[in-house]
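Module 6 notes. Inverse folding takes a fixed backbone as the condition and produces residue identities as the prediction. Think of it as a translation problem where the source language is geometry and the target language is the twenty amino acids. Below is one complete input and output pair. Work through it position by position during the lab.
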């Protein structure tokens, strides 16, 4: 009997577009079973429109308010997405590359001093990390290639990304070399060479981008 009453109440709530929680708590929908009232009568009583408070029904005004609120929310999302994907000027992207080049310059010296954390901090911090660690969507050189139609930059982007990735990997390995089994050796020459190679590649990208803009 209890299951049948619940089904009746759910039907009444759905028909009236009223939240189920309201249907359960509203006095007009609360039916006390008695021996003198047939089960079918209780369901009819619960679902009868006369027993539903009109104030609980959605009005035309409330529907419009909901639709308007939804439209405003969607418009805001579209605008924010468009702003996030707004085109960045080539000059601004070139400035980011020049800043990255300045950030990379201390790395060979830091490697010689075995300051591994300092090296990895530079490599993992913007704008340098955008060149190899955050994917193509945020890669500065790839954005420049699209903005200037200079697609030879894509080859440089791939080579530079590999140089920076390997420099970071070798630096990371040096941190744990003493904890590895065997006679592990600290590698300084290799990551230094990779850092210097990366700076040459980055300088080449900057020159190419400037030529494309001018």
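Target side of the pair, the amino acids:
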């Amino acid at each position: 009997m209890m299951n049948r009453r619940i089904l009746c109440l759910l039907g009444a709530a759905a028909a009236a577009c009223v939240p189920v929680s309201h249907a359960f708590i509203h006095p007009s929908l609360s039916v006390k079973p008695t021996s003198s009232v047939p089960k079918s009568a209780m369901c009819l009583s619960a679902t009868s429109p006369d027993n539903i408070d009109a104030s609980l029904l959605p009005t035309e005004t409330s529907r419009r308010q909901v639709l308007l609120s939804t439209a405003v929310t969607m418009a805001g999302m579209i605008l924010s997405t468009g702003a996030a994907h707004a085109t960045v000027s080539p000059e601004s992207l070139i400035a980011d590359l020049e800043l990255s080049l300045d950030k990379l310059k201390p790395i060979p010296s830091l490697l010689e001093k075995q300051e591994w954390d300092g090296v990895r901090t530079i490599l993992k911090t913007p704008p340098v990390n955008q060149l190899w660690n955050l994917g193509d969507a945020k890669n500065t050189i790839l954005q420049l290639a699209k903005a200037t139609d200079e697609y030879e930059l894509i080859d440089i982007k791939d080579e530079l990304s590999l140089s920076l990735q390997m420099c970071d990997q070798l630096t990371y390995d040096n941190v744990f070399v003493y904890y590895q089994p065997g006679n592990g050796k600290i590698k300084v020459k290799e990551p230094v060479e990779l850092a210097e190679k990366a700076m040459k590649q980055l300088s080449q990208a900057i020159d190419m981008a400037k030529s494309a803009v001018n």
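Reference fact for the lab report: Residues 1-49, 78-85 have pLDDT under 50 and may be disordered.
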